[in-house]
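Appendix B, Record 12. Input sequence as logged:
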Amino acid sequence: MDTVETIQQLFGSQVRAYRIQHAWTLKVLAAQLGMTETSLSRVERGKQNLSLKDIALIAELLNVPVPILFGGTLTPLPPPTLEMLAAQAQTLYIKAQGIVEDTATMAATARALIGDRQNQSPNPEEKVPSSGLEYLGSEQYDPASSYEEDDVESVYAYATAV
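Logged structural output:
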């Protein structure tokens, strides 16, 4: 018996065991999979190949991780190392900087649009509604004063506040 046949038989026996654990007949599971009872029986006996899509569907229906159907075990991932956490923090910091830059660009654009709208008003004294963007166009708003460059929490707070 070659490796492929061994894997097929192991997979089939696991499918059968989990199907029986769910108290499902061949007919019930086959119907859910959109295949005939004969085809499912051949899978359970290790005589028929399946696509990865079908394997994933079987695992989902049986509520079991795919590796378990191949006789594998689920081992917990090791805790992250300090280097991994530092790399993730750096990546998040870089993304936060990008968000801050994008937000500052959007604020500048909003200020320009607000100015254009007010300049187009028939009555220059009339306050043109700015859809909640008046604050962005005001002198009170200074994106640079909202955060310290090395303070990720401040960067995040600034980016989400705008």
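The radius of gyration is 30 Å.
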